[in-house]
Please model this.
Amino acid sequence: MKKLPSVQNCSAQSQKGNALLYSMLALVLGGIGVAVGVQQYQDAERSASVQSTVGEVNTIIGAAKQNFGQYGYDGLTTAIAVGSQVIPQSMANGVEAVNRFGQPVNLVLTTPGSGTATLTYEGVPSNVCTSVVNGTQALARAVTVGTSAAKPLDGLVNLAELATGCTSRSAVTIAWTIGRT
Model:
């Protein structure tokens, strides 16, 4: 005659199964929590990068207009902009400047007699490009992203050109043309 399992053995096996099930559930929920946390961190980091870059660009453009606009930007070079602290001291590297992405920043006369200057930021990551242009375009007469005219001279932002320029490479160059209309 076959011996039936005791009630204690069934209960112990059931408890082991429940413990395994709860452990697996805890791991799944923990993994979801970590994934959400990582995504929120990345979003916050991106937002901080955008805001910092927009602040830098707006500061440089405002200071350039105030200090050099009255002279039509004639003779303006990056070295002069760095020396006069139109480009903030924190970005200065001797007579050159670098942005938060470790790439060159230049502020120069566009064309002699044009009354405009061009500020360029190299190496802007494509995932922040559109937000940076949107946050800064109001102070510029024109904005170019790579070879795309995101904002033609004295025009409005062309969303198709902006998207094309910002997604053309993993890091792009943005150029703002500033000056009198």
In short: The radius of gyration is 28 Å. The CA atoms of residues 47 and 128 lie 8 Å apart. The mean pLDDT is 88. The first strand starts at residue 92 and ends at 93.
